[in-house]
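By convention, the token line describes the chain's fold. To illustrate:
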Amino acid sequence: MASDRSLDEILHTAAPDPRPEQRAHRLDPTEALAELARIDLRTADLPAVLQRIAELAQRTLPGADEVSVSLLADRTREAATPAYTGQLALEADEQQYGEGEGPCIEAATTGTTVLVDDITAETRWPGYVPDAARVGVGSSLSVPLPVQETVNGALNVYSRTAHAFDEQAVELATSFAGYAAIAVANSRLYETTAAVARQLQEAMESRAVIEQAKGLIMGQRRCSSDEAFQLLVSASSRSNRKLRDIAAELIATTQRR
């Protein structure tokens, strides 16, 4: 099966700003969860799914002015934002990456929800707080968002005003993140299943080519199937080329004669 991708591979596409109509149309939670369920995994890769999650959260969660999804690699501690709804969210995330501390990093690494009720009164993360206030953050809410075994994530909800997130907003954000995690898991499962299907198809095609080449050798050398296969293996080993390539070359050469 395909292994988990690196953080760099997950971040191969940039997140666009949302369309104006997306900002204007607010969603109730039921509608937002239905939208999550309707994501077409045939056309949406993981970065696209993360972007859709950010957009739906921005339109659904009370107090949300901007939303981002931040990712943090377990081993390298590399962090990045593959999805965001506006510049404020991106800049707030990046300030945390620069300082190596902040609510989104804490939520991603500890698996706990982190609420910043008033950025001007916040005493945690002294390196981050002034920069967050400067870019326009009044309050924020960061909720863990599982991505894959080696990459932790957080759904970050930013408001330009203080005290924007009450207990109900925290509960809703936590519930939303739980459903979003299912969408992420389904995206990864679909990509893995599709990769396995491609590998099986390639294996079947390779086998067909090798069997055809074995048949040609058996006809030319008057040898057994095993002996023909060993001749292909020996040619592959001597030339340091794949067995399928050797077989395909033999077929092409015979067809040209």
